[in-house]
Write a structure and sequence with these properties.
CATH class of the largest domain: Alpha Beta
CATH architecture of the largest domain: 3-Layer(aba) Sandwich
Number of strands: 15
Distance between the termini: 24 Å
Radius of gyration: 21 Å
Structural class: alpha/beta
Number of domains: 2
CATH topology of the largest domain: Aspartate Aminotransferase, domain 2
């Protein structure tokens, strides 16, 4: 029996292991030099002025909302086709998450519908670069600037993707851009995340918020006599959202492999598209010419009138090919129904997408034989 193929997994080499060992043998396990080194390398790779690494991608989104000043009585807008953290981060702040339907082709937030969903209470926009495909950032940023809103891009899927020639995180396309370093993402720190920004003031606030709201830069402390070099102030209600030196050492090693990882993901995607294109009732995510896809996920959409997704999913499992569905629309989850009054039928394109979506195995360690195994089984089941 050939080995099982999960929908995603990490790729750890011996040099990753040795990087972690060096950190374990060093003087700092946390709050040491590896954090600043990883942040510097990440900012450079993403074309951003600042990178603030944090405990995970959810923390990145939460702290970004806090830095934007989101609070009770406020609203924010995101996509219904995303992991729940893209909306939960607003609820953590006491704000109300709202949704806008997706585009039929890209499966990203439909920017043409956003302005109509705004109210006087709207403060943040959180578009999601779904599966690794950048959304329409220029149009969304123009709207945010026109209406005085903060744009927080959820790029958890999109490290290494580009939009109009620019990497995710730079060129002020968003006020803040959030990344995830979970093991199935492009690079991993085990758990981890980051916020990218070009705004010096936001960066200072984010660094304080991840460290209990503590500020110790003398230039930022309250005027008056200080007791000594130990003096600091809690200026915000912050959290412990720090990332360790151990994790940052792994992140540095992984980041060096990002170009190779991206290239392999894109190659796998081309093979999937070529092999499955002739199947009836199958659609792929659109690929606008002005952006490159990072392929965190490779999703196919199977027309429910032709194919039984549950049967396909279960038959592939029997053959040790483990697919997944990304995502159950957030507005259909019980918490959102009960707390915010969402309901089926509100976002018909998202719900239609969900009815046929299936994520195939996608990770750089897949061999050409693995890809052929997935496609041949699918062709047998769907052809």
């Amino acid at each position: 029996m050939p080995p099982g193929l999960p929908y995603g997994r990490q790729w750890i080499d011996e040099d990753d292991i040795q990087a972690v060992v060096r950190a374990l043998r060093g003087d700092f396990l946390t709050q040491g030099p590896a954090v600043a080194e990883f942040e510097s390398a990440l900012a450079k790779a993403c074309g951003a002025r600042h990178a603030i690494v944090v405990a995970n991608g959810t923390v990145a989104l939460h702290l970004s909302c806090l830095a934007a000043g989101l609070g009770p009585g406020d609203e924010g807008i995101t996509s219904p086709i995303t992991f729940a953290a893209s909306a939960n981060c607003m609820a953590y702040c006491g704000a109300t998450p709202k949704f806008v339907d997706i585009q039929p082709g890209t499966w990203n937030l439909n920017h043409e519908l956003v302005e109509g969903a705004l109210t006087p209470r709207t403060k943040v926009l959180i578009p999601v670069h779904f599966a690794g495909l950048p959304c329409d950032l220029r149009e969304i940023r123009a709207l945010a600037d026109r209406r005085g809103l903060i744009l927080i891009a959820d790029a958890a899927h999109a490290l290494g993707a580009t939009y109009q020639g620019h990497p995710m995180g730079g060129t002020s396309l968003a006020h803040m851009t959030c990344l995830s370093f979970h093991p199935v993402k492009h690079v991993t720190t085990g758990e981890g995340g980051a916020i990218l920004t070009d705004d010096d003031s936001l960066a200072r606030r984010l660094r304080a918020l991840r460290h209990h709201g503590i500020v110790n830069d003398p230039s930022e402390l309250s005027p008056g006599p200080l007791d000594g070099a130990w003096y600091h102030e809690v200026q915000y209600l912050g959290f412990n959202g720090r990332l360790t030196d151990i994790q940052c050492a792994l992140g540095m090693s992984q980041l060096a492999k990002l170009p190779a990882f991206l290239s392999r993901r894109q190659e796998i995607a081309r093979k999937y598209r070529a092999a499955l294109a002739a199947l009836p009732g199958i659609r792929f995510q659109a690929q606008p010419a002005d952006r490159t896809h990072a392929y965190h996920l490779f999703v196919i959409w199977m027309d429910p009138k032709i194919h039984d997704r549950r049967r396909v999913h279960e038959e592939l499992r029997k053959r040790d090919i483990f697919t997944q569905v990304h995502y159950i629309p957030v507005h259909l989850h019980p918490y959102y129904r009960n707390r915010f009054g969402t309901h089926a039928g509100q976002y018909p394109i998202a719900e239609e997408y969900y009815a046929g979506a299936l994520s195939l195995p996608m990770y750089p360690a897949m061999t050409d034989g693995d890809v052929e195994r997935v496609t041949s089984e699918l062709i047998e089941l769907l052809g």
